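Minutes, project check-in
Item: structure for the 745-residue chain
Input as provided by the requester:
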Amino acid sequence: MRCRVLVFLPLLILLWSGCSKDPAALEAKYLARGKKYFQEKDYTRAILEFRNAARPRPRDAEPWYQLALAYFASNQTGLAITALQQATKLNPKHTAAQLRLSEVMVGSQQPAVLAEAVDRLGQVLATDPDDPDALDALALADLKLKKPEDAEKLLRQALSKFPAHVKSSAALAAIEYGKGDLESAEQTLKKAISQAPQSPDAVLALAQLYQLEKKNLAAEAELQRVLQIDAGNVRAWLALGNLQLADGNTGAADQTYRKLAALPGANLSYIHAAFLYSQGKQAEAIQELESLAHAHPGDRAARLRLVAAYSAAGRRQEALQYLAEILKKNPKDNEALLLRGRLQLDSGDLLDAEQDLQAVRHFLPNSADVHYGLSRVYASRGLQRSRFQELEEVLRINPNLLPVRVELAKAQIVAGQPRAALEMLEAAPQAQKSAPTLVAARSWALLALNRVGEAQAAVEQALRVQKAPDLLLQRGLLKAMKKDLAGARLDAEEVLRMNPAHLGAVNLAVQTSLEQKEQPIAFRILQETAAKNARSPQIHTFVGQWLERLGKPAEARQAFQTAKSLDPQYTGADLSLAALDFGAGQIDAARNSLSSILQKEPRNPNAHLLLARLEYSSKNIPAALAHFRTVVDVSPDNVPALNGEAYLVASQDPDTALKLAQRALELAPGNPAVQDTLGWVYYRKGLYTRAVELLSQSVAQQPTAVHQYHLALSYVKVGDNSRASQNLQQALAKDPKVAENEDGR
């Protein structure tokens, strides 16, 4: 007997081993585990199991569909959509995946996306012509495509087959409400309740209809009926709390939000704290959030809410102390490091923020949050190349992040790289191609490339779908380019009606008014902008800068002081006041303002740059040089600082100056001030022909007295006395002391 066991044992091992490696069996095992975790609402583990399930049979769509559901449940919508796209790519006949993806796409406002959703729904209905969910989604698509009659027909078709399908009834009631037929909408929902008396969704839909009709007592009664059917209905509890809050019944709302916070499985333990915060009870709200965070130390969301509440309440040190306690227990806690990095970034502690974010990147190299945080650090430090690299890395990790793509494009355009911006925008996922924000960003790139016709066509087409502010602004700019100043101002004013804080629209409205010789209208626009944004220090500073340009220094100073009174920590107002004093020759006042900024923010680049200009005007070259160098140390890609340092060291150390100026020109090709500096460095090095070449380019763009003086001296060195004399005379006509000032530098 023992021999038989020994003989059969290897065979049994081989059989068991072979079964464990069977791809279908492995997939089934992982899917079963994932579904179990999903039912338990442990979405993190469910996601891991569904990912494992996708490996043994990589061409099977089902694991990807289940993975999408888990991503949706954990609020990772972008990843969920990617998983659905993969599922439908692997198996176009996977109707559940096609339907879910179509339902997501129907939420879009973009005609191209809606058209694709309609095609996918057609595939679902080809398999099951009466699928009520597919008919509902198709009806919504028809509504958005301006086909209300077709939508209503589809919904009635669904209800004829499935009269208890609440979703169809709710959609039909919404159409009837939209047509103003309130009685029919109410009857449709009441009929749905009679067909499905135990459906909380039907009763909830009727409650929402009553809310829209301002029948709050009836709405509350229906919400209470929902809770009798389903005591754990989160949507009903939320609606009830919001209704009570809107009615001013804060006591009842307080009790409702308390019950909702304690509701098992609702994942809304913070909701009562949020209510307290909204009522101005910050201390009590933070106390609750502290209790939640300490009770669940591994809860990422609880940490984030507590740190955000500390920051919003101005208790930054407590937020840092809380994170320090976590990091003391575990110095490699990536979430705490990431949160601390964000706090430091928001408060301007760039080097500390970078250190924390780099530490997290070491452990989480594919974290989009980390790379985006680093992009903000590099943007603040003026390191544009590094910023672009980090934003590109974010998009590599998640190509669906449209706001990041648009941000990168705009930054590239500002940096003089419109072609790179255009290529990057055109690489966006197809579903995003007609998004208004992407179309607007693409149009900015086209305008920067002087492809005006293409930009205009894209803007007009996009505006037929949606009147987005940036698109209207672009249409206004295109009109201004054609000298239709009145039309341009009308577009700018329409943008301001939509968004009174849109600074691009303010600029266009003011500029077109000035070009039309209508200065009173320009002042009115600035006054209205300040009045409509009365609590914004940034807007008051912006308005003050315009007033200064328009020769109204007293009014500008008042605007800056208003901004400062609104937020004493806002350095933008202090900088503007210092610049105003500097321009008025009040050197000591300007220096005092800038020194106070540097006491709070020792590395503030704008304060150092303005101090450098101030010291240079006072002939204090060493002090000016020190300020330029401080900026370069913190922001090695800061063009004004590189250019200023190069210019000041050109006579003593032309080799160092050459490296600095070349770096500046590499970062800002075609900049006339940088061309002048580099040309002057070549002059100091005795390379006169190269100096003439660069200085001529500078003067062609910006014929200032200094630039023409430098060019005149260079022409002398190459023996072109005629041009030397011509440029010297023009320079002296603009500034009789230019030679004295430059030679005495």
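Outcome recorded: The CA atoms of residues 542 and 736 lie 34 Å apart.
No further action items on this chain.
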